[in-house]
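Form 7-S
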Amino acid sequence: MDVFEAIHKRRSIRKYTDQPVEWDKVVHILEAGRLAPNAGNLCNFKFVAVREDAIRKLMAKACYNQEWMEQAPIHIMVCTEPDKSKRFYGLRGERFYVIQDCAAAAENMLIAATALGLGSCWVSAFDEERLRRIHNLPEQVIVQMVITIGYPAEEPEMPPKNTLEWLTFVERWGQKKNLPPSTMGWWSVRLERGLKEGEKGIRKLIQKLLENWKKKKG
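Output:
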């Protein structure tokens, strides 16, 4: 599965099978998070991967009783240390860069999970103090999000999305007149690739037919 297909197929999954997730896949997902872009290459994020049933149940309760989370065999809690970014970038680092860094890591992990045939969901609604107590987090560490991972037991349709034309300006805010059309959206990439592969296949077929014709003629 290429990256565009993974982005297109990713959904927020809230129903999971009871099939365990292979640990090597979890490691691949964590590695995708580790490689995310981040301010100053400080890598100011930490991941807590949780497999134990009892802890996951406590986490689901801490996430305002989102019981569906208990079905997911893996929870990944993404944390950061704001003071670390503040030392390098001041208030902007403390208030914004830490969020951006963790968000980039989380998105990488969501896409990686999809590419590995897994479902995932980004959870931001939680009682942070309860999560802190569950995991005995140091005072300087805060929780940014929890990601559930597992084999999906549902295939939700893509929810409505705004068009690229609606979301994008060119050169300056409000200017749309020079925006190239995107009538096919994501599918234009797939279509172009399919046409190229089809063209190669047709050429091979024609070449084979010509060779067979020459053999029969000779």
